[in-house]
Amino acid sequence: MINRWSHSRLSTYESCPKKAFYRYVKKHPEESHPAAERGLKIHKLAEQYIKNELEEMPKQLYLFYEGFEQLREDYKKGDVCVEEKWAFNLSWEKSDWDGEDTWGRYVVDAFVQDGPHAKVIDFKTGRYKEYNEGYKNQCALYACCVFKRFPELKTIQTELWYLDHHKITKYSFTREEAAEKQKDFHARGLALTTDEVFDTTPSEFSCRFCAFTKICKDNFYERKT
Ligand code: SF4
């Protein structure tokens, strides 16, 4: 069973339950991707810069020079949370990352609160797509979680900062909109965390990016040959 979920676990599970089983239950080793490693490195640099742990802004952040300067200033004033690991229980109430009742987890790259309004910023590296359904879904989940964590908030703006492209995609949510979406996420999170079968759902798309094609006999390409 997979007892805890996150946006990335949900994406994996909905792409193919068996893929989630291999990754999160069996923990089969996977090759690391250079692009993923680069992303982690840049996230770390961004965190260090905002927290004033680096004197010079790393060149990887230059396209958002003003944005990172502002975050650094606001962090000094105590108005910004960076790389926070937040979690919630089955009632979507705040819990500890490793709490016994923890059901869902999410990491916020940057969170800025201004009275009843808040901004959640997610740093993206790599390709830019004007519209990305998965990222929009991720933003909606942020809104659901953050509204529950901060009952005083009235609006949340989520921003995807494409650090390699100087592009920002924004989605705004009211508390009422997020409450509607939360019902959907709740059902999807339950499907993931109660599954004991983990069926395969082979397809050209999900199998093309699967690290387990060699051990999965249902993989789309195996079936075609
Ligand atoms: S190879 Fe395809 S069917 Fe098998 S686990 Fe991966 S995504 Fe699922």
Short description:
With 225 residues, the chain is α+β, with helices and mostly antiparallel strands. 42% of the residues lie in helices and 22% in strands.
Give the helix/strand layout.
Layout: H1 7-15, H2 17-25, H3 34-50, H4 65-76, E1 80-89, E2 94-95, E3 102-114, E4 117-124, H5 133-149, E5 155-162, E6 167-174, H6 175-194, H7 204-208, H8 220-224
Parallel strand pairs: 4-5
Antiparallel strand pairs: 1-2, 1-3, 3-4, 5-6
Helix pairs in contact: 1-2, 5-6
The chain binds iron/sulfur cluster (SF4).
How would you describe what is shown here?
It is a single chain. The chain is of the alpha+beta class and 225 residues long. It has two domains: 1-31 and 195-225, no CATH class; 32-194, no CATH class. Helix content is 42%, strand content 22%. It contains eight helices and six strands, in the order H-H-H-H-E-E-E-E-H-E-E-H-H-H. A six-stranded mixed sheet has the order 2-1-3-4-5-6, with helices on both faces. A hairpin with a 4-residue loop joins strand 1 (80-89) and strand 2. Helix 1 (7-15) crosses helix 2 (17-25) and helix 5 (133-149) crosses helix 6. The longest helix is centred in the C-terminal third of the chain and has 20 residues, at 175-194. The model has no long low-confidence stretch (mean pLDDT 96). The site of iron/sulfur cluster has 14 residues, from helix 2 and helix 7.
